Automatic annotation (TrEMBL):
Organism of derivation: Actinomycetospora chlora
This protein's UniProt keywords: Methyltransferase, Transferase
Origin superkingdom: Bacteria
Stored InterPro entries: Methyltransf_11 (IPR013216), SAM-dependent_MTases_sf (IPR029063), Thiol_S-MT (IPR052356)
Full protein name: Class I SAM-dependent methyltransferase
Length: 206
């Protein structure tokens, strides 16, 4: 990944996604979390203070050692037990049907094989489990989308593989999940990352 990706991007992300606006969006999504939670892209743990009382444990998946170190204080103050459960959202080292909730906030943009990661979400969810997501992605506005496609390669190089043009609800629906709730929103100063999808999905019947 190199010096920039390993040491600089996690610090930029920690600041850029640590605003009151983003915190409020995360809190909206996490309100429905319950039981055993698997969180993809845990980062420095900005979600930890936002989990509701019904959450009993968080299994955190995070590839960045720097991000994990940045989250040391949040981990020490966490209201729920937290254990790290691997580095790779594409290949979760977890048993089938172990999670009541899987959470992803600003994460699916950077996972190289996002389809595989979403299939892993489907695999680890219990039949009555819930996938909660807050992701930026492809804008429905054609003019904005054109700029997203133009800037996508540069964004990936500068922001640790972050894609601007992923349609997360559609990707979830193609990966064995059924999107049951979906709200579109915008980051006020998000630029090409401004378009957001906040939602929930359940495992499709096998």
């Amino acid at each position: 990944m190199g010096l920039w990706g390993e040491h600089v991007v996690p610090r930029i992300t920690d600041v850029a996604l640590g605003t009151p606006e983003v915190r409020a969006l995360r809190e909206r999504v996490l309100a429905r979390a319950r039981g055993e939670v698997v969180e993809l892209g845990f980062g420095s743990g900005p979600t930890l203070p936002l989990y509701p009382a019904g959450v009993t444990r968080v299994r955190a998946v995070e590839p960045s050692a720097v991000a994990r170190r940045l989250g040391a204080r949040r981990l020490a103050e966490a209201p729920v037990p937290v254990e790290f459960a691997g580095l790779d959202g594409e290949d979760l080292d977890l048993p089938d049907g172990c999670a009541d909730t899987v959470v992803s906030t600003f994460t699916l943009c950077t996972i190289p094989d996002v389809d595989r990661a979403l299939r892993e979400v489907r695999r680890v969810l219990r039949p009555d489990g819930l996938f909660l997501f807050l992701e930026h992605g492809l804008s429905p506005d054609p003019r904005t989308a054109r700029w997203q496609y133009r800037l996508d390669g540069l964004q990936q190089r500068l922001a640790g593989g972050c894609h601007l043009t992923r349609d997360v609800p559609a990707l979830a629906g193609a990966s064995g999940l059924v999107v049951t709730d979906l709200v579109h929103d915008r980051l006020r100063a998000g630029g090409a990352m401004a378009h957001l999808a906040l939602g929930a999905a359940i495992p499709a019947p096998r």
